[in-house]
Amino acid sequence: MRCGPLEHVKQHKHTTMSYSPDSRDGGEKRRGTVAVKSMIRRNRPVSSHLHPAIYWTIVGLAGWLVLSVWGFFGSGYAGLALAVVSIFIGIAVAIPLLLWAIARRHPPAHTDPRDSASFNETLSEWLAHKLDINTGQMKATVAAVEILLPIAAVAFGMTVFALVRHLDGVV
Questions:
Q1: C-alpha–C-alpha distance, residues 66 and 61, integer Å
Q2: Closest Cα to residue 152, out of 80, 75, 71, 54?
Q3: Minimal CB count within 10 Å: which of 12, 13, 83, 110?
């Protein structure tokens, strides 16, 4: 007997406990069943590289960080310190960007031909994949958030600090 696409999922249900604050049932715990989501999307493609948009977003956020750091420009040696910080940020972005460009132009001989074709996929297609990392596989959306969150938090946080400094009138 052949099962339909949802028949297979119906066979693998897990029992969960849920709390319902609804006044009709007195707010008591009740048993329910929830289908496993991973059973529905089990054949998700796996990618072994980041999408170029992720790299360019990192470059943009680093540029934003440099601009927000320069919001602290004042008198004395602040300009020199900010120039050194800008150079360090530039180097921290340039090295991975150069390594990515070299790896893209000169792929290893044992590379799967599907990997080189996947450089032409859109970001939304790439985000639907799983990403193969050293510790296993993870959703590409989760990987993108974990990669972009630190630099975005620093760039936006530094912007807020610079705005507060200027609105406060401290020179």
A1: 9
A2: 54
A3: 110
Q: What SS3 class is residue 132?
A: strand
142 is written with which tokens?
């989760």
Q: Encode pLDDT of 21-57 as tens digits.
A: 544 545 555 455 444 444 445 567 888 888 889 989 9
CB 12 within 8 A of CB 39: yes
Q: Specify the length of the chain in residues.
A: 171
Q: What is the pLDDT of residues 75-85, one digit of tens each?
A: 778 888 888 98
* Amino acid letter, residue 136: G
Burial of 62 (0-12, 13-18, 19+ CB in 10 A): buried
Provide the token pair at 12: 């693998």
Lookup: tokens for 159: 């912007």
Are 34 and 13 within 8 A, CB to CB? yes
pLDDT of 166 reads: 83
